[in-house]
Write a structure and sequence with these properties.
This protein has six helices and eight strands. The protein has an eight-stranded antiparallel β-barrel.
Length: 205
């Protein structure tokens, strides 16, 4: 229903601009058609597919409700957490060279600091719930955050109290004193906020 209303609204805007001149009207028609197509593809699942190789571009965070976001200090707090976590993750080896690859046969690989971890995954496109299972049987549950208008970007968001365990597992984070220090700083930061989901912002290669 929301998608239908969005498409109708966009078409109404296009009709309004049709009176501004043939050339401009054609440009707006192309733009609106592109938006409508993206929305339609999102409904059919094309834009929400996670198959392929995704590179790490930084951290991402989301408060589980608007009330919690407001209580924590709004978008400023969100930006603060993202910036600090991006710096911390970089010290632990999470840089732009890190990748996730999701295969059509429900297997995945993640590469962090040159170290590759393999396992299987399940993904529910309706609920956006993703479960990663390593070869050792360790499971991690995440929520996939993706905008239908930017299908080549997505985030994997985990509960704050679980993301550090994931970092240690796939990154070998406890290899040095500096890693231990970074993890301690991350835990202190995460303890400041309740109802926080934290994870990785990814871009499709």
């Amino acid at each position: 229903m929301k998608c239908n209303l969005m498409i109708r609204g966009m078409l109404m805007i296009a009709l309004c601009f049709a009176f501004c001149g043939t050339g401009k009207a054609q440009d707006w028609k192309s733009i609106i058609s592109g938006v409508a197509k993206a929305v339609t593809e999102g409904k059919t699942g094309t834009a929400t597919s996670i198959e392929g190789t995704w590179k790490y571009v930084g951290s991402d965070c989301k408060f589980t409700s608007d009330n919690l976001l407001a209580k924590a200090g709004g978008e400023v707090a969100s930006k603060k957490v993202e910036e600090k976590m991006t710096d911390i993750l970089a010290k632990l080896g999470f840089t732009e060279g890190c990748t996730y690859t999701f295969n059509a046969d429900s297997t995945y690989t993640s590469t962090v600091k040159g170290r590759t971890t393999q396992g299987t995954y399940t993904y529910n496109a309706e609920t956006k719930e993703l479960q990663l299972k390593t070869r050792l049987g360790i499971k991690f549950n995440a929520v996939v955050s993706q905008n239908v208008l930017t299908p080549k970007k997505m985030s994997l968001l985990f509960k704050a109290d679980k993301v550090m365990s994931l970092i240690q597992t796939i990154g070998g984070a406890l290899e040095s004193k500096s890693s231990n220090s970074a993890l301690s700083t991350a835990n202190s930061l995460l303890n400041e906020y309740d109802g926080l989901q934290l994870g990785f912002a990814l871009e499709k290669q």
